Amino acid sequence: SSGLLALLLMVLELSRPSLPSPLKPICDLRVLNHFIKEARDAEAAMKVCREGCLLSESVTVPQTRVDFEVWENKNASEQALEVQSGLWLLQQALNLLRASVTNTQLHSYIDSCINNLLSLSGVLGTLNLQEYSPPTSTTGLEGTWIVSSPTELLQVHLNFLRGKVRLLLLSAQACQQHDVS
Amino acid sequence: MTYDYLRRLLAVHVVLCTIGGAHVVQGARDFEKKVSMLLHEESKNPKCFAESRKDLTCFWEENEKAGSVDQYSFVYKYQNDRSESKCPLKAFHLTSGRKLYVCHLNQTQLFVQMDIEVNRDGHLIHNRSLLIESTFLLDPPANVTVSNGAKPGQVNISWIPPPVKYMDDSMMYEVFYSPMDSHIGKVEVARASSELVLRGLQPATRYKVQVRVNLDGVSYSGYWSAWSDPVFILTPPADLDPLIISLSVIISFIFLVLSLTMLVSHRRYLLKKVWPTIPTPENKFQGLFTIYGGDFQKWLGHTDGDLWQSPNVFYPEEGPSPLEVLSELPVSPLLQCPPLPPKGCRVPQEVKTEMDMGPSLQREDSTQSEDWTTKSHDHWLMERLQALQQHPIPYSQESQDTYVTLSHNNNEDVQDSIPVENVPLEVLFTSRKESESPSDLGSGSGQLSSQSSFEYSNQEWAHKPPGYTYMAVADSGVSMDYSSMNRLEDIGRVPVFTHEYKNDIALRRAFVTRQHHVHNY
């Protein structure tokens, strides 16, 4: 039976699902710059929209403000958590916006923003940050506020990318060790 | 000890104050620069700018009638803030007399909308919403250094970016460079880099370089900073491209070889052109220059009969020889003809009977053949000249030009006495025989213009042994052109005359002199 146990252990060991090898961190800010520019285009398009651009309901969005005195006092994990939760909230809000807006011209802008947010999540995943588990409920979350107009939502989206997301990428540990191009 | 301590403290304090004061003064100057720039560029009120990530300065301008600073209030609120905040104001007086009210914040929030309201006595006078990260107005780059590059026309420029964290990669720079003596310059842009290489600069020129900075507008944006203090550089002089040098050397070498080859192959021709042989009559006058040293009289005396007896030596083809008209001599000095230079005295040759021969340039032959008649001729000619002077001819005695006319004459009395071969030159007097001269001329003889002419009697001539008339004439316009009639072997050995004798003889080809017409003058 000990021999069988040993054999079993060996087989289990071999068949153990291997951990994914750490991905090469994406530290090139040009990717983020591209996302920021597309977010800016979407906000500009939404500003001039007159019809078919409404939010069906209010959405919870992250705070975008950056007080450098405060930000620099936070440690890396706190910063990462802020960014990750904010991105998750924005994804939910944009999905809702996509469903609410009937103006077909805006659809392409909103679609590209949603795709960019997904890519950003992937980029953050390469930075070897802690796992983020989204909250079950967004009401009363710290560091959030509620918007009801699509213009405000896209403004928040833009400012969030330009501020906190960028600062996180700049100061990420993983990026400090590699050559940041 | 306390005294020493206090003294040291005071010294340190003074030093610090001086430094701080200087800093303050410099800071005030920079502030004024930025204020004036924003007053010019920004139209909204209040005008705001951020110099770092954490501060904000807002101001607006009021005229002289503005109230005190207490009348104003600056209120701001960030988006999603529950309450608004107030900013303490300061007043500054500008040189133009206007007032400036300034609000300065040391802690700001970026990436969030800021709403500002300015009230005066409770009334809103200005309001504005802005994003602070889009109002950056940085100090110009510091420590701009320039140095000559590796290649000619290249200059390396480097600078220190403004010390703002997290924003190095968002900065863009403009480099302005222009020659010192020109106001037209070029601008190069550098992004997220603190050095730049300028290309295409003129050599040996003094350049002025300035740099300014701005944010790229993706995450952060703002206004262009002021230009940095100018830096100067002198570009090195252009050095010759080695390829051009080697090509020039090769081409010049090839050219040299070609020209040398040409020179060598055509050296004889070129030598003749550049250094023509001066003809000398030496070969015709044997011993004239070598033995007698150019003394013609002596030479004539020694070579009397030889050449005369063998005329064929000199006239292998035929007898006639040309008339040679000499260079100008005034009428009066003609009394002394010998020993004139060869140019002055000539012996007329036999008149050619055949036109195809034409007179040839063989005066040396004639001189040799009638040496023994020369002296007698001289005397006779002098007598004639004297006679001429006493009885001046009707026209143009003063004229220096003497022309010789060869004419065809049908006088029978003359014809028999003179052999054909020895028919001398015939000279016409124009005054009396002018009416006849055209006819004479028309008969086919050559005619030059004549202003004065000589005449000698036929009888006199008959007494003399057949020979050649020795005549001194003055001419300044008579020219002989025997170029078409020269015998081939004489070319190169015959002296070149200074005057050309142009006559119609050769042209008409009708010149036959069997007789000479003699008129008694």
Automatic annotation (TrEMBL), chain A:
Predominant location category: secreted
Pfam families, per database record: EPO_TPO (PF00758)
Any GO molecular function: erythropoietin receptor binding
Biological process per Gene Ontology, one example term: erythrocyte maturation
Domain of life (superkingdom): Eukaryota
One Gene Ontology term, aspect cellular component: extracellular space
InterPro entries per record: 4_helix_cytokine-like_core (IPR009079), EPO_TPO (IPR001323), Erythroptn (IPR003013)
Disulfide bonds: C27-C175, C49-C53
Keywords: Disulfide bond, Erythrocyte maturation, Hormone, Secreted, Signal
Signal peptide range in chain numbering: 1-20
Subcellular localization(s) per the UniProt record: Secreted
Gene3D superfamilies: 1.20.1250.10
SUPFAM superfamilies attached to this UniProt entry: 4-helical cytokines
Summary of the function given for this chain in its UniProt record: Erythropoietin is the principal hormone involved in the regulation of erythrocyte differentiation and the maintenance of a physiological level of circulating erythrocyte mass.
Family classification: Belongs to the EPO/TPO family.
Stored PANTHER family: ERYTHROPOIETIN
Full protein name: Erythropoietin
Organism: Periophthalmus magnuspinnatus
Automatic annotation (TrEMBL), chain B:
Disulfide bonds: C48-C58, C87-C103
Superkingdom as given in the UniProt entry: Eukaryota
Places the protein is found: Cell membrane
PROSITE patterns documented for this protein: FN3
Record field: compositional bias (Low complexity): 438-452
InterPro entries in UniProt: Erythropoietin_rcpt, FN3_dom, FN3_sf, Growth/epo_recpt_lig-bind, Ig-like_fold
Pfam families xref list: EpoR_lig-bind (PF09067), fn3 (PF00041)
A Gene Ontology cellular-component term: external side of plasma membrane
Region (Disordered): 431-452
MF annotations from Gene Ontology: cytokine receptor activity
Main localisation: membrane
Fibronectin type-III domain mapped to chain residues: 140-238
The keyword Membrane belongs to this UniProt entry's keyword annotation: yes
Keyword annotations from UniProtKB, A to Z: Cell membrane, Disulfide bond, Glycoprotein, Membrane, Receptor, Signal, Transmembrane, Transmembrane helix
The UniProt record lists the keyword Lyase: no
Entries under SMART domains matching the protein: FN3
Membrane-crossing segments per the record: 243-264
Signal peptide: 1-27
PANTHER family the record matches: CYTOKINE RECEPTOR, ERYTHROPOIETIN RECEPTOR
Family to which the UniProt record says this protein belongs: Belongs to the type I cytokine receptor family. Type 1 subfamily.
Name the UniProt record assigns to this protein: Erythropoietin receptor
